[in-house]
């Protein structure tokens, strides 16, 4: 049987040896890590405070 009939995807490699999938994974991790360190915008903090106040009044 060949790779296609078994459902396996052929591995594509970059010049530096990283597979395309691994390279994408590493880039996504960098982006999400950067997003985690960003501060919450003031408008969201204010909105959350308003929602909490409204919830306490109910």
Output the keywords:
58 residues; mainly alpha; 3 helices; 64% helix
Q: Any idea how many domains?
A: 1
Helix content: 55-70%
Q: Figure out the total of helices.
A: 3
SSE pattern = HHH
Topology:
Elements lengths: L2 H4 L13 H17 L5 H16 L1
Overview of the molecule:
This protein has 58 residues and is an all-alpha fold. The protein has one domain. The radius of gyration is 23 Å and the shape is rod-shaped. The N and C termini lie far apart (65 Å).
Please outline what is shown here.
The chain is mainly alpha-helical and 58 residues long.
